[in-house]
Fold these 2 entries.
Entry 1:
Amino acid sequence: MGFIMSDNPPKDIKQFFFNKRWWIITTVLLVVFTLWTSEFQQANTTSVLVSTLRHSTPLVLGAMCGLLCERSGVINIGIEGQMLMSAWGGFMVASTSGSLLLGVFAGIGIGMMMGGVLAGISVGLRGDQIIAGTVINIAALGITSFFFSLGRTLPSGKAQVIKLGPLADIPVAGRVLFSNKPITYLTLLMVPTLWFLLFRTKWGLRTRAVGEHPSAAETVGISVIGMRYLNVIMGGGIAGLAGAYLSLEAVGSFERVMTNGKGFVALAVMIFGRWNPVGAWGAALLFGYASAIQTQFQFRDWLTDDPQFIGIIPFIVTIVVLAGFVGRARPPASIGQPYSRE
Amino acid sequence: MSNLRLFLMPILAVALAIATGALIIALSGSSPVDAYKALIDGSLSDSKSIGRTLEKATPLVMGGLAVAFAFKAGLFNIGGQGQLVFGALIAGAVGYGVTGLPWIIHTPLALLAGAVAGAMWGAIPGILKASRGAHEVITTIMLNFVALNMTDWLASKVWREEGVIVRTPHIESSAEIPRWGELPAGFFLAVVVAFLCWYLLRSTTFGFEIKSVGLNPNAASYAGISVKKIVIMTMAISGLLAALGGAIETQGVVGRYEPGFNAGLGFEGITIALLARTHPLAVIPAAVLIGAMEAGGSMMQFKADVSPEITDIIQALILIFVATPILVRWFLSQKETNELSVSTTWGS
């Protein structure tokens, strides 16, 4: 949970609950709201939670990509384009070769290449990071529309649910946590792993140093340019995994503009989670929930004549989060500034 | 700094993009010569195709101006798409809903209504940035999605024409922007607006304040300029410009608002503004260039069997070559570069 593993754990338990009161209140409200919209039935509650987790997966991955880049001082506004290119590339490879695994690797590879482009422009050539990201988004839109041919399918079908033995039989939790598809499991594992790497290893310390105070990092012998290249390319790979999730695991085909703003929502998720993997995971669940209750609205016959109002919920939530939290969350200090040795 | 070099750089970027595009066409198994011949045929060969090029270029001039204008204050408005569809819809609604006016009142009234709607929509990210520090890149993109859904709803529920197709009724003839022969009058309106923007930025106090905020908000604030006010005003004007493009499109070309009809127009504004290096007058030739590609795209598919999306790729390549500082560095020595920068206010 977002409030258990922050980077400075609180000393006193009372203080802890007080500090996290908004998280706790929100969680309680969401639980009550979920039970109410699903009419207090176990099957409905389970389906809301399952759908929350599925909607949150690409957002978690996108946010991980964003925070890897931003923790080392590079804004990545091109997550959307990186996801879209990988969704397309992964699908093309999987549909040609017939192997989903190959498709996922292709998606990750293309994501890393896109990360390399962003790093090349913004770190290597010291161009403006936001413009570089926008270029990636627009280029991805053009390239995927041009090279996409209709009528392709996945010979093997999309990725299947893997049930984790007896764990999957636990009521509610079994369906929600232990009967998922491969990339969803991988995402759930990636959150604590990345948290551990960022806050408990040498690599993580270096990454944060490079993002906070690059010239100080350079004086103790850390290669700022090297760290930034490494992290932006790795971040691209994670965004690529998110793209592969969309085309190979969630939908099972490629559609034009199938990312539909998820890369940008992921940035808001990252800010809401205060550049912390676990916090971002909690925030992504909140956004996933905002998408999941859309289906629940339909079950209850609310606003079915005006689907547009339901469609804008995640975007409105993003704006509210940005407007409400950006001032209070502090980004890495050197973000947005190209680095050059004196 | 040498003006000639500044002028050459975008041309070189376009040339590189066209050459790379030729390579892609050749690799996909068609003849690049035939394809580009057809492209020119469909966009510049006679008065009819030139008229179509200018027609396509009109919203692009406005979209490019919207991005370029915001850039002057250090703001990156990616919300042109949403502002444009709002302008197009409101102009359409006023165009058909208000009847019995002479055209001399009705046409400007509908244009103005669309523009004001866009200004209000554009002001929202400005207010969010000035009061809460939310970065405009994300809020404008989110507002694009909101605007698409909202205009969709208004066109399908509130102002819908009877029938199966979701669209507003055709506007009154008194709200239509005329054509002079094959030439669309709307294009000349856009050119006039470009000159107005250039004058405003170059020779007025307000323009000076905008540029000061763009160069250094702290210094501008110290000099007594209200940075928040400038941010909100600039975003509103930027939204107004994009929306006016949508209104001209409705009143001069389409004749009504139809969801999905203006798809993608707002994003091309970014390419155009960067190609013009954010100069309001340079936006005009940049928009005509992209407009010619759009106008000739269908001819290219018809004659040379090349998918018209190749023009999207060429545009993306232009953007890459324009935005990649390597070209800038190559042409200008490093100290002279007035590079475009919008990343400084991220998250603060």
Entry 2:
Amino acid sequence: MFFKLTPTTGQPLYVQLMQQIRHAAETGALHDGDQLPGIRTLAEELVVSPNTVAKAYSELEHEGLLALRHGSGAFVCVKRRTRSLADQVQVARHRIRDLIEGLRDDGLFDEEIHRAFEAELLYPAQVLRKR
Amino acid sequence: MLWYKAWLETRSRFLTCAATLTLFSGIFVHHAQGLLRPEWKSDFNRLLFINQQFLVIMWVLSVVLLGMGGIIREQAIGTSSLTLALPVSRRRLLGVRIGTGVLEAFVLALVPWVAVFFVSSLGRRPVSITQVASYVLLLVGGGLVYFALAILVSSLVSGEYTAPALAFGIVLLAAILFDAGLRQLNVWRLVTGDFSIDRTTYLLSAHLPWLGILSSLSAAALMLLASTIVLQRRDF
Amino acid sequence: MTNEPVILTHALTKSYGAAEAVRGLNLSVGRNRITAFLGRNGAGKSTSIKMLLGMIRPTAGSGTVLGKQVTNPDENRDLRKRIAYVAEDKPLYGYMTVEQTIRFASAFYTDWRRDLEKSLLRDYDLPLQRKVKTLSKGMRTKLALLLAFARRPDLLILDEPSEGLDPVGIEHLLQALVAQSAEGVSVFFSSHQIAEVERIADDVCIIEKGRLVVDASLDQLRQFYRRIDLVFPSSVAQREFDIAGVERIQTSGNEMSVFASKNAEGVIQRAQELKAISVEVAPVGLREIFLETVKEN
């Protein structure tokens, strides 16, 4: 498994790790039942604080993606819920791709598009959407 | 392990001084006694007395050098952060340094006189053990105050050369001033046996100046106490 | 295991005459975390650390490390049994050999680990019989670090540990710190290497002119610090942005650059109210946070 954490992107490292693990599960790089490296091993490999790995694993366990078994490590559980989430993400990515192509056609540079997304994401949700 | 460190730090100084003092005493007495006729008993005793005069100079120099070093000096060379981070009290650090120095000072007083004992026995001029013991006792009992002075100076001054120079300066000054004013209280004269020597037989009196020795040791203790207080309060 | 801080100070102060090297320091370093201590040269980092270790007596204030009072010499000696500390200049006794140095240091600590000592000696490739004064600077640094890493203390305190190390050495150092942290050792280190700090630190404390100016987790810093660049149709006064979280504003004509420690949404909202033509939000790296924070003070 190849994870790459970037300290300067304004996102907590544990969030980045969570996203990359989720992404791996969605795209099938990680299958149901696969074992992730132990907290210490992964921390030493990525050269990040063990607390970062621990928090990512713990949050993913909350979400149901990982099952932490004391002593044996972290195991992936790709449930049906996660799969439908993966499908939703796929659809969303298509929509975003179309939007970005449109903005590029309008003459915006990628950096500007990125910053515009960031700014808009900081707005509180206009409507409370149920998950 | 602190004793080991103190030994490593003083080892070369100690061994050099021990060799020097022992060789000097042995050779001096051996050579000089050869110039004396067997029946000149008091001349022989006077020889031993003269040996003590030389020995005192070298011994005091040696113990002052042995008293150098310590945490203040370590701060100047940059290792105090290592030593002070150890889980030992400053009192203990100083105590081990003092203990090592005292033991070394004692050996430095003993070994040269043991050499003299053997040299004169071989030359068929047996020396009484009491005399040897008395000379050693005068040296250590009266002279540890010089070591204590060195410890105190090295707890205040960090220079590699300024500390011993200051200590030697005080030793010299004290000897001169006491001689000028309070001759009876001059430790130097106590240590050389000046107060205890019989000028006809040149034998040390059986009654050693215990009061003088006690006072000298008390002064030493006070100086060591002062050193402890200085170190406890110091920031590194 | 309790969750009380491994280091907790209350108004810790050190003055040298009229000059205050450390003033009113309220440090709280979490257990089982990697905490970085940043500050300019002379800001008071080393003085603070030395007060914790009993080498300097505070002028005022108090502190505890591992629950023991730092100002009590006996308690401080006890806490030093469970701390591994490497000073900035990586001190070693020049007259000892590598082997003697290790034998000396290991005798004082019950948490010494022979297995770690052996593997580190192998990794660092240190010649056992050479006297320390004949070693190169890099080897001396490694030996000084070995004395700390061949142990499993409760707390590891390092003052500028990467100084004197080449990039490979720095990588090994970071891995060693991560390994220690994974074993339950709390790590507190000061550093000028912001890039390294950003990778492994959980929490960051920034000290400037003797005072703590930032005390937060890196996650919080990453999540909330933002730089917002705005362009308005006409020039706007800085006081319009006197809102929570705004730390520093720079204006140039119709352009404004806002450095915010939180509440970026509030800044954007105000910008929109003032009819901003362009709103750009960017994350802020630790280097910029550090520079902006010490500039401000």
